[in-house]
């Protein structure tokens, strides 16, 4: 599931655009690496060589850092591109090196999506860990307010019902919708594999402001 940036929401220099394109593919390669590590059957010599290569790459990448929220990879809120509005989300972030292969999009007042969980997400044999499933469910609910043009919400309650195990290496369909309520949004959704609902989820989300509060004055 490949992510490509839409037209930027603020000016981006050609150098920064090229860096971001390279970072997108590096993040994808890192995710691929993490699953291969969980499945590999190669011998110790190959493993040691691979470890040395990974450590060299880590040292090279650690030479310079970006600060700020989302490492300055977020240009603004774009309701059509959740993966770029939440660029480092551990579930859908386009630049996240740790996320599962999950993609969400908005369609006619609903959130739709696809997911594919791998060996690194194992819980019971050949099925996804319930904690990983809950993370996806939480992110699915968090995007529902966008269908109502509300971006700044936080999850107040989350209820996940595990009806069936979610298999690995199978395409999972995601869908959710919601409605505005006092001070927030009520959302509901499902995760299905092979046309069978495996997980149901409900959530309450409240509108919040992430603006930094002014420091309180100290008493004299």
What does this 3D model show about the protein?
This protein has 4 helices and 6 strands, in the order H-H-H-E-E-H-E-E-E-E. It is an alpha+beta fold. The chain has a 6-stranded antiparallel sheet with strand order 1-2-4-5-6-3, with helices on one face. Mean pLDDT is 89; it is low at 1-8 and 211-220.
Strand content: 25-35%
Stretches where pLDDT is under 50 for at least 5 consecutive residues are 1-8, 211-220
Measure the end-to-end span: 58 Å
CATH superfamily grouping of the domain at 100-207:
Hotdog Thioesterase
The total count of helices amounts to 4
Number of strands: 6
Order of helices and strands: HHHEEHEEEE
Main CATH class of the domain at 100-207:
Alpha Beta
CATH topology of the domain at 100-207: Thiol Ester Dehydrase, Chain A
Instruction: Give the overall shape.
Output: flat
Structural class: alpha+beta
Task: Identify the CATH architecture of the domain at 100-207.
Answer: Roll
Main sheet attributes: strand count, strand direction, barrel closure: 6 strands, antiparallel
Name the average pLDDT.
89
Radius of gyration: 20 Å
Give the strand order of the largest sheet, numbering strands 1, 2, ... along the chain: 1-2-4-5-6-3
Helical proportion?
25-40%
């Amino acid at each position: 599931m490949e992510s490509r940036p839409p037209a930027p929401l603020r000016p981006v220099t050609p150098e920064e655009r090229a860096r971001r394109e390279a970072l997108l593919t590096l993040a994808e390669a890192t995710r691929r690496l993490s699953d291969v590590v969980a499945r590999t059957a190669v011998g110790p010599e190959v493993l040691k060589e691979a470890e040395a290569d990974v450590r060299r790459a880590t040292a090279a990448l650690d030479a310079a850092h970006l600060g700020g929220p989302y490492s300055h990879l977020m240009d603004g809120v774009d309701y059509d591109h959740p993966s770029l509005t939440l660029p480092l989300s551990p579930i859908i972030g386009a630049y996240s090196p740790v996320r599962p292969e999950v993609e969400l999009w908005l369609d006619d007042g609903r959130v739709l999506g696809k997911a594919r969980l791998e060996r690194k997400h194992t819980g019971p044999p050949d099925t996804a860990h319930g904690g990983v499933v809950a993370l996806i469910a939480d992110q699915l609910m968090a995007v529902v307010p966008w269908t109502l043009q509300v971006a700044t919400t936080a999850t107040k309650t989350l209820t996940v019902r595990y009806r069936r195990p979610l298999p690995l290496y199978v395409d999972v369909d995601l869908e959710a919708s919601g409605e505005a309520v006092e001070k927030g949004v009520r959302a509901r959704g499902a995760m299905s594999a092979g046309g069978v609902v495996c997980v149901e989820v409900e959530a309450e989300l409240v509108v919040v402001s992430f603006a930094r509060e002014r420091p309180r004055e100290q008493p004299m």
